[in-house]
Amino acid sequence: NLFKPELVPANSETKKDFFTWMTPVNSVFGNFGPNSAARRLSWRRKTIPDEAGIDPLLLPPVWSRAAHAALEQQPDTLFVITATQGVVRQRIDEATLAKRRADVEKRRADFTKELEKEGLVANAVIDARNRSLRKAGEELAAANRRLVAAGKDPIVVDGNDKIFTASVQSELRRNGITITQDKEGWTKKDGTPVNVPVLNLSSVEGASWNDFNAHFARLQKHFVPERAKMNIFLFVGPDEKPETSITNLTAVAKRNGGTFQLLTTKRLEDLKARAEAAK
Predict the structure, then answer these.
(1) Which of 96, 124, 158, 265 is the most exposed place for a label (fewest CB within 10 A)?
(2) What distance in Å separates the CA atoms of residue 12 and residue 97, rounded to the nearest whole number?
(3) What do you get for the CA distance between the two ends of the chain, in Å?
């Protein structure tokens, strides 16, 4: 979501407009990401000729797509604020995809045979498990609304299956919340839940940071006559220890003539206090 389609002067009027646009972002629970800004201006990437050497199969970290959009505007400096280093992946070729498809079909057939011995039907088991996870997710969402209404932080998970991990269950208990796992329809004769294998077909695989560094260098060369300096800020929570992210993002910033800095909650509070004291 672009603030503007091209570079604009950083005058008082533009700054006021920017903060009007930016202030709603992630300010309402349940409405996160680019669409939560005051208005929407979708990025339409410019065509890059083959001679630029950009690998069409490479999938760079999500934050670098914003940096790509910025490079198209030919700046001399970029400031990247991210909560994650992201992942570097690449799409697989058709031959590899065919092999993966065959492997998934074999796992599905083996899973079906295993359940038949238990008198179960694979699709029914998968449906029952999915219903159970959706129910748990709805219960967590309702609990989070109560927590937020009480001025507390919500309990955030990156998948409904994580609700039943020991750490999340412990956090739920500390807040007086109980979410039990509905196992109806997806347990074996001995009462244990069925371990559903991964049956989705992935068309991507991991790539290296060296691949990404080369990718971004080519973007720089193509869009910016003189390489834009890129400064990266990583925002982390109080208990995070992002050593790998710090290493990788520091290297990216230095390769692009910039610096890396870590943003923590405490540092933001210190900056806010310093700004208020200067008024």
Answers:
(1) 158
(2) 53
(3) 33
Among residues 93, 90, 53, 51, the alpha carbon closest in space to that of 209 is found at: 90
* Residue 253 pLDDT level (bands cut at 50, 70, 90): very high
Positive or negative CA dihedral for 160, 166, 172, 173?
positive
Q: Determine the residue type at 131.
A: R
Predicted confidence (pLDDT) per residue in 19-74, tens digit: 999 999 988 877 888 899 999 999 999 999 999 999 989 999 999 999 999 999 99
Per residue in 63-109, pLDDT (tens digit) is 999 999 999 999 999 999 999 999 999 999 899 999 999 999 999 99
Cβ–Cβ under 8 Å, residues 226 and 198: no
Chain mean position to CA 48: 26
| CA–CA separation, 53 and 57 (whole Å) | 12
Tell me whether residue 152 is exposed, middle or buried, using C-beta atoms within 10 angstroms of its C-beta: 0 to 12, 13 to 18, 19 or more.
exposed
